Amino acid sequence: MAVVGADRAGYERRRERLLQDYAAIPAGAPVRLRKRTSNLFRTRRPVPTPGLDVSGFDGVVSVDPDARTADVQGMTTYEHLLDVTLAHGLAPLVVPQLKTITLGGAVTGLGIESTSFRNGLPHESVLEMDVLTGDGRVLTVTPDNEHARLFSGFPNSYGTLGYALRLTIELEPVAPYVRLAHVPFTGAGELFAAMDEAVRDGLWQGEPVHFVDATAFSGSELYLTLGSWSDTAPSVSDYTGMGIYYRSLQTRREDHLTARDYYWRWDTDWFWCSRAFGAQNPRVRRLWPKRYLRSDAYWKLIALESRYHVGERLDRAKGKPPAERVVQDVEVPISRAAEFHAWLSAQTGIQPIWACPLRQRDPSKTWDLYVMDPQITYVNFGFWSTVPLAPGQSDGHHNRRIEEKVQELGGRKSLYSTSFYEEDEFWSLYGGEAYAQLKKEYDPQGRLLDLYSKTVRQH
To answer: Is residue 120 part of a domain?
Structure first.
């Protein structure tokens, strides 16, 4: 039986009002969403129009515990979604690491987490969507109705084909606790071989594995983290205050977290990026309000730096060389993962690096704008830092080399951050022919930016 939250009638009223707002935008004027949060790191040009107000599309419409499904509005953050589903002993099949990522954003822009080796990416658990298309319609889109091509082309379209207003997603049962084993390795080759074995068998030392990711502090200090559901825990750790989760990997071989704290283990310190703001200094951390130890608080600081360049000016005054922001998530086949890690470390010196395995959940499916070989296990590498530019190197040097290396290894990169592809190269990688057909059918007037214009830095 469905449990109702944000009622369906209210959703339908908001949908009709949004259609009216969309129709009122002058022909030829750019269209965008007015959002309170963002997890994008690419350069964006200012848009003079105020944007469509979609703030009302935040909330879970209903949960069906028997069918293990949820009907969710597109602007619902995973923090709010998870709180609702956990009350029923359920969770989305993939919960991206940061609390303010929205369900609609994760589906149109991809997302990943430590369940992705068995559940794929967030869009793979979607059963149905209501999509506001570029031509001003709201269409119900499923894998097998007349809009099936839009369903398979929507992931990785980043709002350039339309916006998901409502989604029906699958859920899976959860236990109260997660038991973690942090297994140390002194070489990347050994770590990725062990990861491949755990992913393939779903077991580690004879015990079931439900979560897999890894953290590389250097080429000789790496940790494979294997999680499993547990009904009991001798004690639980708390990494929402003075404790710092990623540092615990270096000191603990076993740990226990509540289910909720496990899902948000990376959010408190934005993986390890909070160190840039001094939030990992114990003296600073004691004074830092706990409610601001979360990714969206750091994001606001990043936005201020992007606007005023205070840190950049201070570094220049200290005589430091110019630096390039290297913020990327890329996937390479697991057979090439050790090679990529060694190359990235040598080229950029970025540490730590996050690594997470993923496989396509249903090998029979094709996702037109982000095609992966369904027979291959990939490893997502997440790295977020700045890298000094040597004399003669211009901004984009390191990012472009990473793009070339990932392509050489048969991988793909996420488009949430700035990209540098040439246009022909871009469309060959991201479903250009399929995308052109969808754009013609669902946004023939080009009311929404095309994918290349929206995601690739213009030179």
So the answer is: yes
